[in-house]
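# step 3/5: fold
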Amino acid sequence: MLRDLRVKNFALIEELEINFDDGLNVLSGETGTGKSIVIGALEMLLGARASSDVVRSDKKCAYIEAVFEPRQLEKINKIINQSGIETEESIILLSREIKLNGRNRCRINGQLATLGMIRKISQYFVDIHGQHQHQSLLDKKIHLQLLDDYICDDIGKLKNKIKSNYENIEEIENKLNNMEIDPKEKSRKLDLLNHQIKEIEQAKLKPGEYINLEKDYKKLNNMEQIYTVTGSIQERINGEDYNTSSILDIMGNLMSELENIKEYDSSLHNFYDDFENIFYQLQDLPYEINNYHQNLEYNQQKLIETEERINLINELKRKYGENIKEISAYKDKLQQKVDKLVSREEQIERLNKRKEKLSEEYYQQAEELTNIRTKRARELEKEIMYELRDLAMENTLFKIDFKEKSWSADGIDRIEFLIRPNPGEELKSLTDIASGGELSRIMLALKTIIADIDKVDTLIFDEVDKGVGGKTAQKMAEKMVKISRRRQVICITHLPQIASMSDNHFYISKETNGKKTQTKINNLQREGKKNELARMLGGVEITKATLKHAEEMLKMAESKKEQI
């Protein structure tokens, strides 16, 4: 529940702190003192859109802070832990700073948080109902949600199954929509893909082939130079050119000269050995070169074929990959695309069968949910009419009408609340004939019924008593007390009947010093509460008669509260 609310520099509020308690908490005061501003600040703290207009004049920012002691603390802590926010043992601290420049800072337990995170957890804290909020009853989509809130745990698992099947069916339909292709477009794609595959396959590429082709091309393209150079080397080693000495002769002469002096120095002996090794190697080398030279064969046709093969592979590389490995991998991808196009009909058939199976499950589950809703709707109708009798709507007939079915994540039901305020009239849509006061009382009746199962800790009623008085006001007060025994209730009211039943009464006033106006709050004790009731009964002037009446109301309220 909401324990503490602190508001600073917000509209008329310079600084305000309210310590709420269990039971029925009432806020009262004259019109224009800022009672609804307090609730407005709380709404902004819980995620409502903020504007810099709310910042008090001559201030740079507004600040709102609240301490909650939620019943579902473990579930809430699990949510905020997922965002890396540390938890407290028994409380949740929310704060929001609204600056003139439009920037906002939200915090959970003193740690920076997003507004989305606060909205996500605030659903467990407070449910605010006022003249505007009750207009939500005019939205037919809310009617089904309210019925399901009443049924609650009886349909939780069933609704989860329905939602899961619905989402799976939608996913399949999206896939089917994406798989749709025009037959001509399909044929065109297949022709292109098959042409590309055929082009690669006809090349009959082999791993490492391109490197070998480059080697062959280099040799064939330079065959004349190779033949000339190798022949010349052979001749010069053997001395076949009679104009010059052979390399072997020169080496032999050098060895003879070294042999004459090698005994004079060991280093010269080493040089001689090196020359001797080279000499014997040179003797074999001409035979090897000659053998290579004799086997050289210039093949113009092979050169042309090799060049054409290289050009072909280069063209494939330009289109499909930087090397033969990449080209082969690209061909595999092309084949996969072909297979996918060819097998598209098979995939569509499989998906349609899956969709048919899920749809059958969905409608079976949805029909089961409809049966439960129909049965429990009749029960809710009776309970609402019972509660409305206590709220001066004893002749009202309330019906829950099941409309034409349409599938959604919530099942196949569309419902609408119908009422007949007076006997002899026809049932009509709540959205067509209900007044603001009637909407308030219907919502109060609903909240009275579902108070035990509502997940929200605190219910706030913001002047829902407009247009209500006398016995109806008293019954409305008793309903609020009844709800407050199971949930914390905060109510802004102008009715003394409701204020007299409060467990905690806060009086809100406005003070002006000539330059500034600010809202003040006072937690009333019994005597202060009696004076406020007297003011509410008599207007501005408090008389002995209104004080006496206020005392009688307090005693009667104390007696009634003991009976609830």
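# step 4/5: annotate
Residues 185-342 form one domain.
# step 5/5: archive (pending)
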